[in-house]
Structure formats: structure tokens, C-alpha cells
Amino acid sequence: MPRPRSTPSTAPIQRALRQKFHLKRLRDGQQEVIDRVMRRLSTLAVLPTGAGKSLCYQLPAVVNGGLTVVVSPLIALMKDQCDGVAELGISAVQFHSACSAAELARAEQALVADDPLILFTTPERLADADFCACLAARGVSLLAIDEAHCISQWGHDFRPAFLQLGSLRDALGRPPVLALTATATQGVVDDIVELFDIPRAGVIGTGVYRANLHYRAEAIGRAEDKLARLLALARATEGCGLVYVATVKAAQEVFEALQAADESVGLYHGRLSASQRHEQQDAFMDGRVRVMVATNAFGLGVDKPDIRFVLHHQIPPGLDAYYQESGRAGRDGLPAECTLLFSDSDRSVQQFFLSGRYPQLQDFEAVLQLLRSRQGPWDEAELDTALDAIERPRRKLEVALNVLRQHDLIDPTAPVDLAALVNIAERYGHKAESDRASLEAMVAYAQSGRCRWQLLLAHFEPSAEHPRCGSCDNCARLARHEAAEAEAPDDAQPPPQIELPAFALGQPVRTRRHGVGTVKAADALSVTIEFPNGATRSFQPQFVAALNKSRAAPMSA
Ligand SMILES: [Zn+2]
Predict the structure, then answer these.
(1) Helix 346-355 to helix 418-447 angle, to the nearest 10 degrees?
(2) CATH classification (class only), 213-352
(3) 342, 401, 409, 542: which has the fewest Cβ within 10 Å?
(4) Distance 348 CA to ligand 1 centre (A)
(5) 478 CA to centre of ligand 1 in angstroms
(6) What is the pLDDT of residues 537-551, one digit of tens each?
(7) Using alpha carbons only, what angle is made at residue 429 by residues 167 and 316, rounded to the nearest 5 degrees?
(8) How far away, in angstroms, is 460 Cα from ligand 1 center?
(9) Structurally, what CATH architecture does the domain formed by 10-205 represent?
(10) Each residue's pLDDT tens digit, 478-498
């Protein structure tokens, strides 16, 4: 049955939208999300950055009143959001480690007196039992989780502290949750809906495709030639752009090369001080710096609409990360270029990162041993120091600690549940395998002769059919090929198969990364190969070597 055009709840929404936010209408996706949030239903909103995610909690906060708690991974981001809300005339406060005593005192006052109130905080702060109890006593109307993919170990921005949010929500009296993210893969969505008990009907998204982003990938044989190519591409594109690199060392090198070439360039990575990072980000945001060279530390919450190009100097760890990073281009809807440069050495850099990521059984055991080494509870600062003293990677220990807490395995009076530990460690083993598969998918994307958008969409929405985009490098090659064929006079010999070898159905071939396989389909632009493990991948012909000269059954294009 069609819904009535004006349900009783739409009038106050429309009024608040006009009067408070000075907007005429809600955008795609926002309407559906806000409709659920107004009815206090838990929701996961998968909206591209720039689609107006914050309105999805701000508007219900204004109309429904009460206390809205917004959890955010970045303090810098929170400050901007808080200021933005306050400018709209809505009471907003923040609680985190960078607040001054005066700010905290004012925030505490607002927490008692103001309604509606939007409170921004970090997961670490929320984990403080006194603070959490204080919020629970006031009563939380909505718990909004910004950048919610950080809870998922399948996501590329995994933050161990986000894992606690499930149990913290319980401590807050189980308010409805609004999880917000731009990352839409199944693994990430599954983790978020599981942690917060969000029904499948509560997952709202606006799709992945953005026609203004033009994708291409270039193989650069020698790593040292990349810098020259990068510089040429940056110069050839007007407007400001981002260059993503995989390591701090590479960031420094690329930055120096661009600087030496007299480019207007900034540098951003996790080893700069907070004030340096802030300064660099500001310079880029207000246009004093045209090109920003950055590691993936740059980006969460960066909302600059007029980025005209995103260049990847190395292969990112997977298509999720690639889509999110490249998707920072062209948020104003105008054309933007997304280019991936890659060489053979890229993959080993990512493999090195993967090896340090997940806790192993030894990490869980080390943390448990530490927790059991004393009677009574640990103070967080003491625990912090004690973790430092363990000779295992710090990050793995932190993840292990949070996982143990999440699974209620830290009670010192209960016997150690070894079976549960082994089970959890195995799960992380599977995640490591899945990361390796993500990296392989990324490499396959780089080498593929198929439409880049088809490849990206197949990753995010595997069940649907996707047309060619017509704007990526591979679509352009196909168009040139077709134009050349159309121009050839009817009586002329068919054009030679360019300079590429023709591949026959069933012919054994070799690729550098995947070894030997059999040709399943081929034309002048793309060769699809089946490998002995059953996997099928397509390659540009230049990445495929014939293993024999059998041309008994040449395939037509
Ligand atoms: Zn295409």
C-alpha cells in the first residue's frame, strides 16, 4: 500500500530542516535514514562522504530532543563537527583528552541543563566507567557512531577501541544506534550490524557508482620511473590533488621530489606532530598548498569538495581502501581523475604491513598472563605501561586486550578458557588470509583489461550486473580500438592484432603473479585466464605470456 504523502511526523522535520538547517529538502539516502532514526530504530547508513551524514543525527536530535551521543575516531574532526552544530544554534559539547578543564566544566553543566544536546566523544572516553554511568543516568536518546567501519577488522581503518562500543552501548541502557560509514563491503556491514543488532532492513545505502570519477591504472616497470610519471600527471591536471603513498619513507621521498620540481606541495603522515599535521591539513584545505602527499593517516573526516585528482603512488591494501581514498576526489560532482601507479615492488610493502596486523595466540596469552599477575583491577595508565614492557608488537597486544574484554575472558577468578582463545586466534588467522585475498584483488584490478568501474562495482555489489562506465582507461582503449576498426575500409585487410599476441582458447599461458593458467576468453584488449585453483582473472594482454605456439583455434575478438 502506498504511504500517505504526509505522515504526521514529516511536518516538524520539514520545519526544522528549513528553520534550523536552512535546507529545502533532504538528499538521497538521508530521508530514509532520518525516517528510521526518528522512529528510534537502529540503522546503518552507508553514505558517501559529502552526502550529509551528520544531518542524519542532527535533525532527529532537534526534533526528538534528548541527549545524542556521537562517537568519533578523531578529535580534530570532532572539534569541527561540534563547532558546526553550535553555529546552527544547537547545544553541542565535546568530551575527550584534548579538552581543557574549563571546556569540561562547561560541558558538564550542559549535560545537566541542555535539551536537545549533542555530545561528541571518543570510544576511549566513553569506556571510562564514571563518564559512561553519568551519561546513562541522564539517558541517551541516540548513540551515533561516526566512521563506523573502524569497528570492523575487515575495514581498512580498524581501531581496537571501537570494539568496545557494543558493550558500552549496553552500559548506556541500549539506546538506538545510528552507525555511519562510507565503506560498504559485506564484511564491514556484517560486523557493524552484528555488534549493534541492526536488522537487515536497517542497512541504508545510496550505491557506489559516481560517474564523475575517471579511473585508470598504469604499470610502471621500474620503480624509479614512477616519480617522473607522477610529476607529469600532477602537472597535467589542474586544480588541487592528493598523492597517496604506502609508507612514511615514500611520502618523504615523493614530497621532496615534488618540492624540487617547484610544485606547491604539502606532506601529511602519522609521524608528524599533531600541530604539524594540523598545519599541513589547513594549508591544503584553504588552497595554499595544491598537492598533498599523504599516507592513509590523511583523510578521515577530510571533506574538501574540489579535489581534482587522487594519485596512488603505490598499490593500497585492497579495493575498499582504494575506493575510499580515491573517492575523496570530485565531491563537488565535477570531473576528477583517479590514477593508480603500480610496480612489482608495491605488493611486498603491503605484505609487510599485513604480517604485523593481527594478534596471535601468544599475544592473547601474554595479555592474560599480565592481567592475572595481580589481584584486583588494573588502572588504565598502569596497564598501559605494563603492556609496553611486553616484548610483542604493541598494536597486537592492544587488539588482544580489547578482544579478551569483548569476549568476557579477563575474569582473573575464572580458569583460562584455552579453547576459546584458540578459537579466537584462528579467527584472526582467517582474517589475515582474507587480507591477503584483498591485496590479490587489488593487484588484479591494477592489471585488468576490464572497465575499472565494473571491477569496483563487482567488488561492492557482486550480485548486480554493471554496464561499462565509458570513461575509464580500459573503456577508452576499447573505444579507440572500435573506432580504428570502424574506420578501416571494407576491402582492407583486417588490422593486424595490434602488436599483441593473439591467444587461443585453451592455450596455456603464464602471468608473473599467478603463474601458469589456461585461456578461457580473449580479445585484443583483455585475456581471461583460469588457474589450476579454479580462480578466473582477466588481464591486459601485455601482462600475459604465451607458453606454446599453438594457434590451432584462434579466437575472434
Ligand atoms: Zn570503464
Answers:
(1) 170
(2) alpha beta
(3) 542
(4) 28
(5) 9
(6) 888 887 888 886 444
(7) 90
(8) 16
(9) 3-Layer(aba) Sandwich (3.40)
(10) 999 888 888 776 655 554 444
